[in-house]
Amino acid sequence: MIGLFLITHTTYGESLIQCACHVLNRRPPQIVQLGVAAQDDPLDLLPLAESMMHFVDTGEGVLIMTDIYGATPSNIALKLLDPGRVEGITGVNLPMLLRALTYREKGMGVLLTRAIAGGRDGVLNMLDH
């Protein structure tokens, strides 16, 4: 199973995981989050991020999800990426996380495609549906 690692601003990642737990009625395995506060030094967090990533990697890889591209959490994630083994996507939201939890046993390529589609397709005008 591919591990999931959320690197986000403050408590956003943990909030997403808690919401996923509510929807799924259980805490999914192999998922961790790192909240980055305004006063945190990204270079100080990098060793912790590496350790957390290895914790959820059982040999099938890790998908890192961040909230905003170009911000500190995604800059930390960029230092961890290893194409094919450690991939990263940004713009994480609850539909993306739920899709990632559903498809992480299907391989990294499928997981990336489905998670991105889940995040994108989860944004819609409610009056149009």
Give the helix level as a range of percent.
Answer: 40-55%
How can the largest sheet be summarized? 4 strands, parallel
For the secondary structure, the number of strands is 4
Task: Give the CA-CA distance, first to last residue.
Answer: 34 Å
- Element-level helix/strand string: EHEHEHEHH
Query: Could you tell me the strand content as a percent range?
Result: 15-25%
Mean pLDDT over the full residue set: 97
Which structural class do the helices and strands define?
Answer: alpha/beta
The CATH homology group name: Phosphotransferase system, mannose-type IIA component
Estimate the global geometry from the Cα principal axes: globular
Output the radius of gyration: 14 Å
Low-confidence stretches: none
Number of helices: 5
Q: Can you tell me the number of structural domains?
A: 1
What does it look like?
- With 129 residues, the protein is of the alpha/beta class.
- The chain has one domain: Phosphotransferase system, mannose-type IIA component (Rossmann fold, 3-Layer(aba) Sandwich), CATH 3.40.50.510.
- The chain is 46% helix and 18% strand.
- It has helices at residues 12-24, 42-56, 72-78, 94-103, 108-121; strands spanning 3-9, 31-36, 62-66, 86-90.
- Strands 2-1-3-4 form a 4-stranded parallel sheet, with helices on both faces.
- β1, α1 and β2 (31-36) form a beta-alpha-beta unit.
- α4 runs antiparallel to α5 (108-121).
- The longest helix is centred in the middle third of the chain and has 15 residues, at 42-56.
- It is globular.
- The N and C termini lie far apart (34 Å).
- The mean pLDDT is 97.
